[in-house]
Design a protein that fits this description.
By secondary structure, the protein is an alpha/beta fold. 48% of the residues lie in helices and 20% in strands. The chain folds into two domains: 148 residues, 3-Layer(aba) Sandwich (Rossmann fold); 99 residues, Winged helix-like DNA-binding domain superfamily/Winged helix DNA-binding domain (Arc Repressor Mutant, subunit A, Orthogonal Bundle), CATH 1.10.10.10. β1, α2 and β2 form a beta-alpha-beta unit. α8 packs across α10. The longest helix is centred in the first third of the chain and has 21 residues.
């Protein structure tokens, strides 16, 4: 074999450097670390994907089954999810469905050996943003991740938005302040109150289930946290009445709804 016979041809080099240049530009545009939840039960592929994505500047966390991945999602903070479909304990479709209950905006990319159209359609129905069939090239995976992040802004909606103007009320999550629109009435909130109110604001005029709120804000839906949440809801109602007309109502047996006049 002649020297260099196993190296890419010039076209291959051009493709490699083109993808690399675009990725460097992309990471500069994002201007924030991207945290990826990777659910893949194949140890070789999972480890390889994690190492590859980390080498591209992402922070990638690998989980071997759907249950472990969902538990990590509940406790952590991620900007992007990549999940295999055929996994033990909880498959990728079920994982995506559960993630969507907690975050309606975070991007989800499915990796699968399945090629049937019905499987692809089910992936999109479960809340997936894209679907990549094995085997695939790393360049294609990288470009798909970039495209999805550009389209979605790179962050889950609940992680990104921090200022809410709803009816006659303004809420700033970062400063933890609740006020009327002209700022003449202001209430300082605690961190836990702010987290719960942001969740309600993200789903204005929609029911937020008790279990979802507990898992998202308290990280556990046990009895004591449930009682604590009721106390915080009462405090938020008082704060909202102080600055405006927003109201939190109980939906019996289900959860809570922040009522916003349209």
């Amino acid at each position: 074999m002649s020297p260099g016979a196993d190296l890419p041809d010039r076209g291959g080099f051009r493709t490699f450097f083109s993808v690399l240049f675009l990725h460097l530009q992309f990471m500069k545009e994002m201007n924030t670390p991207i945290s990826i939840l990777l659910a893949e039960d194949d140890p070789n592929l999972g480890t390889f994907l994690q190492a590859y994505l980390n080498s591209k500047g992402f922070k990638t966390f690998l989980y071997r089954d759907g249950e472990a991945a969902f538990e990590a999602f509940q406790k952590g903070s991620f900007n992007f999810c990549i999940t295999d479909i055929m996994m033990p304990l909880k498959d990728g479709f079920s994982l995506a469905k559960d993630i969507r209950k907690l975050d309606s905006q975070i991007p989800i990319l499915f990796l699968t050996a399945k090629t049937l159209e019905a499987d692809r359609l089910k992936g999109f129905q479960m809340g997936g943003d894209d679907y990549l069939t094995k085997p695939f090239s790393m360049d294609e995976l990288l470009l798909r991740i970039q495209a999805i992040l550009r389209r979605t802004g790179g962050l889950g909606r609940e992680q990104e938005q921090h200022i809410f103007v709803l009816g006659d009320t303004k809420f700033d999550f970062l400063t933890q302040k609740l006020s009327n629109l002209d700022g003449t009435k202001t209430v300082d909130l605690t961190s836990r109150e702010s987290e719960l109110l942001r969740l309600l604001c993200m789903h204005g005029n929609e029911v937020v289930e008790r279990k979802d709120a507990l898992v998202k804000v308290w990280k556990s839906d046990n009895y004591f946290n449930a009682r604590s949440m009721d106390v915080y809801v009462t405090k938020l109602r008082k704060a909202l009445r102080t600055v405006g007309s927003l109201e939190i109502i109980n939906v019996h047996g289900v959860g809570f709804k922040l009522v916003v006049e349209k």
